[in-house]
Amino acid sequence: MNRQSATNSADQTEANDAFTHHVMRRIAPEILDSFSPQQRQAIHQALSEQSGRRHTIDVRISIPLFFARYYFVVLLGRDRRKAIRSREQDRRDHTNSVASLLFLLFLLLPLGLMLFMALYWTKVEMGIDIFPGLHLRDIIRPLFLD
What does the pLDDT look like over 21-65, one tens digit per residue? Predict the structure, then answer.
């Protein structure tokens, strides 16, 4: 089989599969031209295996409107992606814990500052002098005025 007929065969296979065609169309033409027929066939096979799984319920509806076309998809079936799902869940849990920590930091920092200021104001109003001759304004003023 010569190179041209092998390329046409791979192109024909891609054209029959809309998903593969869509993915291959998004690859830059100069890179796509550098693929051998075997590489194109391997890509097609990998993408076909991904999209070829059957679902118990597979409803795909396309709704054409005057100004746009919308689609609606419902898929239901057994989850066969346990290893992938586990890694994704671990990553999400890590992200959620970091986000929660940052949220608490930004929430508790202003609340702690307000509590400190309320207690300091109460101390000043009651006339309590914990460190004689040293006041908060004496510490803060040089930070902003220098």
Answer: 888 889 898 998 999 999 988 888 887 765 556 778 888 899 998
DSSP 59: E
CB 91 within 8 A of CB 78: no
Say whether both 14 and 72 belong to one domain: yes
- 53 in helix, strand or coil? coil
**One-letter amino acid of 33:** D
CB 10 within 8 A of CB 38: no
pLDDT class of 2 with cuts at 50, 70, 90: very low
**68 and 7 housed in the same domain:** yes
10 Å Cβ neighbour count for 40? 20
CB 69, CB 62: distance < 8 Å:
yes
> 137: domain range?
82-145
| Number of domains present in the structure of the chain | 2
Q: Which two tokens stand for residue 136?
A: 């908060």
